[in-house]
Design goal:
heterodimer; A: alpha+beta; OB fold (Dihydrolipoamide Acetyltransferase, E2P); 3-stranded antiparallel β-sheet; 7 helices; 27% strand; B: alpha+beta; 3 domains; 5-stranded mixed barrel; 14 strands; elongated
């Protein structure tokens, strides 16, 4: 069935923005789309970041929890046997390692808050320059969305203002930091790869702590979606 | 042009489309009074003036055709929508069914789509290369693709505009986000060159076959996606794996699938610059390379944009 549908574009979005998204739009075709704080709908993302760790949710469940960092924070995601290619690759990777991920996005609705997670279709180790280009490209596309937010012309933009009321200058400062980091690395060529990766990991760790406070227990979110995936495959 | 003038023109046009002439000055005066003087909301004002004119000219309400919204072809996403399009007839096909008067492709600057004019619609024929307003047509999905149907409620009107078509040649930077089935080391039928699935040609059944290397994939630049086909030469230039190397690899591992997973590891998730030509569904790639760019230059350019906007 899938091939008959128009494919959704993989949006470029930093983790700090994706993690703030809470609002789900269900259109026809059962497509779940998430409204980003910068006023665009998103059902698929392309990200390049550092796979920090992978952890099996229960022993022998073949269902893995992953964390992937970009310069602004951490993406969380789950990989299971319904994404065999992604799972096979994931198990070959020895974190931390730079990976490119193509992924559907899902929102788990908890009692106190909603949690955005990734459902990767593709995970593949890539080179550092791919990650740098992703950061620059994502910065550019996020800035473009911010510009549209300031203009305030479309319906989605109005909705995003109403729901999120984002502090755009904070967004811009996050983007500035991410892009500046690339210039810094370029200047300090002597910095070894491992050190940078550690640094990135540190930043995400601290971000992680903030998140943990808001989301008390990730395991309380039920994985009902597996059933939906199963239906998709059988149907 | 001020807002009220624009609204007046819309009202006049609405009547004209249904075959009635109304005086634009009269419409303008009435709208201005309602909107400027009495602060009536625009849509209410338009409705009020329309009702007044209907009564005045003694026109039955159902004679006044209200056109469906004008959209671009790229925005057509779901079936069963009533829309209007301004488009050029790109190609007419032979109709195989007596129920169909004309069938073919129409396009605007955002895309190309199949159209069907039902015989029952009883419309004058359209010509290739001419531009038309296709008002009140219905979107439909047929054989997995979107199309528009022209029925008896639709209106086709030749327009004095030259609609441009999407550029056939593209030059894009994007990431390879998917590699589809029937990629890698494949086998083709010796008679018709079609790709075999499980050793069987869809037309000729079990047949003699030859090896080929190709990738059907999806490039995505964050705003659009492009279905692309890479041939053996493209793949060899990018990965160093040509047909010979692929066959050797498969022989060594006793597994043809190894070629596909090798190509996936080398190509998926990477950025490319590629030039190509649009086909009906796939983009035929002429030239493709891994993206090369100046990191520092691009980073500085982006930073300067943030600075400028914060001050302004």
């Amino acid at each position: 069935m899938d091939k008959f549908l128009k494919r959704s574009v993989a949006k470029r979005v930093f983790s700090f923005e994706l993690n703030e998204a809470t609002y789900k739009v269900e259109s026809d075709e059962k497509l779940v789309q998430i409204l980003l704080p910068t006023g665009t709908l998103c059902s698929r993302v392309f990200i390049v970041g550092v796979l920090l760790d992978r952890e099996e949710t229960r022993p022998d469940s073949d269902f893995w929890k992953i964390r992937v960092s970009d310069p602004t924070g951490v993406f969380r995601g789950f990989v299971g046997k319904f994404q065999p290619d992604a799972l096979e690759n994931l198990l070959k990777i020895d974190p931390p390692e730079i990976v490119a991920i193509v992924s559907k996005v899902r929102i788990f609705e908890g009692t106190t808050s909603n949690l955005v997670t990734l459902r990767p279709e593709v995970i593949v180790p890539v080179e550092r320059d791919v990650m740098n280009y992703w950061i620059l490209e994502t910065a550019e596309q996020t800035l473009k969305r911010i510009k549209d937010m300031k203009k305030g012309e479309s319906e989605l933009v109005e909705m995003a203002w109403k729901i999120y009321n984002p502090d755009l200058s904070y967004y811009e400062s996050k983007i500035r930091d991410a892009v500046s980091a690339i210039l810094k690395v370029e200047k300090e060529e002597e910095v070894s790869e491992e050190e940078i990766e550690e640094e990135t990991a540190d930043i995400s760790e601290s971000f992680e702590e903030d998140l943990e406070l808001e989301i008390p227990d990730i395991d309380e979110f039920e994985f009902e979606e597996e059933e939906i995936d199963l239906n998709d495959i059988l149907g | 042009m001020d807002r009220i003038h624009k609204l007046s023109e819309e009202v006049v046009k609405k009547f004209k489309n249904s075959g009635y002439d109304v005086n634009i000055k009269d419409v303008y005066k009435r709208l201005k009074l309602l909107i400027d003087e009495f602060k009536v909301p625009e849509d209410e004002a338009v409705r009020t003036v329309t009702n007044y004119l209907l009564k005045e000219l003694d026109i039955p309400r159902d004679k006044l055709v209200v056109d469906s919204p004008l959209v671009k072809i790229a925005d057509i996403g779901s079936p069963g929508q009533w829309i209007s399009l301004k488009a050029k007839v790109v190609q007419l096909w032979d109709s195989s069914s007596p129920n169909v008067s004309q069938v073919g492709l129409i396009g605007d600057e955002t895309g190309i789509i199949k159209f069907v004019i039902w015989a029952k619609a009883n419309k004058p024929e359209v010509e290739e290369g001419k531009n038309y307003l296709f008002a009140n047509v219905v979107t439909d999905r047929f054989g997995g693709k979107m199309q528009v149907n022209i029925n008896k409620y639709s209106r086709i009107e030749e327009i004095d505009e030259d609609i441009s078509l999407p550029p056939r040649d593209v030059d894009i930077v994007g990431a390879l986000v998917a590699i589809q089935q029937n990629s890698g080391l494949i086998r083709r039928c010796k008679i018709c060159n079609r790709v075999l699935t499980k050793g069987v040609c869809p037309i000729h059944g079990k047949t003699e076959a030859y090896d080929d290397l190709r990738i059907k994939g999806v490039m995505d630049d964050g705003e659009n996606y492009y279905e692309v086909i890479l041939n053996e030469e493209n793949i060899k230039n990018l990965t160093g794996i040509g047909l010979e190397e692929a066959i050797e690899l498969a022989r060594k591992h006793y597994d043809r699938e190894i070629v596909l997973s090798e190509l996936k590891n080398k190509l998926l998730g990477r950025y490319f610059r590629f030039k190509g030509r649009r086909g009906e569904r796939y983009l035929i790639v002429n030239d493709i390379e891994f993206l090369q760019y100046d990191e520092v230059e691009k980073a500085k350019e982006i930073l300067s944009k943030i600075g400028g906007e914060t001050i302004g």
